[in-house]
Design goal:
Blueprint (H helix, E strand, L loop, with lengths): L4 E4 L6 H9 L4 E5 L6 H7 L22 H4 L18 H13 L4 E6 L6 H7 L4 E6 L2 H9 L5 H5 L9 H8 L14 H19 L2 E4 H6 L3 H10 L3 H8 L16 H17 L1 H4 L5 H7 L1 H4 L6 H29 L1
Parallel strand pairs: 1-3, 1-4, 2-3, 4-5
């Protein structure tokens, strides 16, 4: 159990690259996105994305897992996105232990994009594991996570059911963080930055190794050097992993923060101070923080009907997209 490695980070922060580093070395059994809600179907059908450079297969290490369907649940990637140290989720723990055991005599490496707000729980449940967190500068991260959307209106629409689940995460989190409920005409950068700040605070408290995509892999090779020292990689191993690190296409996108987004950052930074999150989170339970800062938290109330309507609208949009896609396929026959 002392050899377990967990990789954590936001979507589009370099977690796939980090996973591929370990996946290239034969002594590791690296599992890609084990909490993806559509993991079972993705193993069967999904090929690597074009901008995931030097990756030819995500799912090879799952193919021998004959009991994967019995242990896996799509709930692991969709519900309770935020877990605190004291909380229990036996099924999730058993699933992770199943993957660890299935690695055999190799060192298990689990790459998560849906664990960064659960690091308190993860560290408490697997105290001897090494948690590696990779971060990316927040504005370029937002640009990269919205670049697949067709126009600026969609990019700024916080209720768009985009590929990286910003709306879905916010709906789940808003029960505990009601300020994440949808607000008409608010930029998606609000939700993006708020969740990014939560992720940063959790990683600061619970990650054992902190990496930055730009500083440690794009502008230098210090990231590989850090990992090599930690895990005792020899010269050949370091050469192998350095050869696969390339600049993703999204790095060529505009990364100068806009005035509107800068103002959003300032307002959320002030909010975190007033709510006690900067000072007490995550070392204190969230309910205790709310009691300490009752007046500030009482300004935000939770309305379940907002979440339900936003999710229903998201489902309608996706069904419309699927209908249009099916029509295009039919027209080509």
């Amino acid at each position: 159990m002392s050899k377990i490695i967990f990789l954590s980070g936001r979507f589009r922060s370099g977690t796939s690259m980090l996973w591929n580093i370990f996946n290239q070395l034969p002594e590791y059994c690296a599992y890609y996105e084990p909490l993806h809600p559509n993991l079972i179907s993705h193993i069967q059908h999904v090929k690597p994305k074009e901008d995931h450079l030097d990756i030819d297969d995500y799912w090879r290490n799952y193919l021998h897992l004959t009991e994967l369907k019995e242990h896996f649940s799509n709930r692991f990637g969709q519900q309770d996105i935020f877990l605190e140290k004291h909380e229990k989720w036996i099924e999730l723990e058993q699933y992770i232990r199943y993957l660890i055991t299935s690695a055999g005599d190799k060192t298990p490496v689990l790459q998560f994009n849906r664990m960064d707000l659960r690091l308190s729980w993860l560290k408490n449940t697997f105290p001897n594991a090494t948690i590696i967190h990779i971060n990316r500068n927040v504005f370029p991260l937002w640009v990269s996570s919205r670049r697949h959307l067709n126009n600026n209106q969609d990019k700024k629409n916080e209720s768009h059911p985009d590929a990286y689940d910003l709306m879905q995460w916010s709906a789940d989190l808003s029960l505990k963080f009601p300020m994440l409920q949808t607000v008409k005409n608010r930029s998606s950068y609000y939700r993006h930055y708020f969740i990014w700040k939560l992720s940063q605070l959790l990683a600061k408290s619970h990650a054992d190794i902190h990496l930055n995509l730009e500083q440690d892999f794009i502008q230098s090779q210090s990231g590989v050097d850090i990992l090599a020292r930690k895990f005792g990689w020899n010269t050949d191993q370091q050469k192998t992993v350095k050869e696969i690190i390339q600049k993703p296409e999204s790095l060529h996108s505009e990364t100068k923060i806009s005035k509107d987004c800068s103002e959003i950052e300032k307002s959320i930074n002030k909010m975190f101070k007033k709510l006690g999150l900067d000072k007490f989170f995550p070392s204190s339970p969230l309910n205790e923080i709310k009691l300490e800062k009752t007046k500030a938290w009482n300004k935000y109330s939770y309305h379940a009907d907002l979440n339900i309507q936003e999710l229903l609208d998201g489902m309608k949009y996706q069904k419309d997209e699927l209908t249009a896609f099916n029509n295009r396929i039919e027209s080509l026959k």
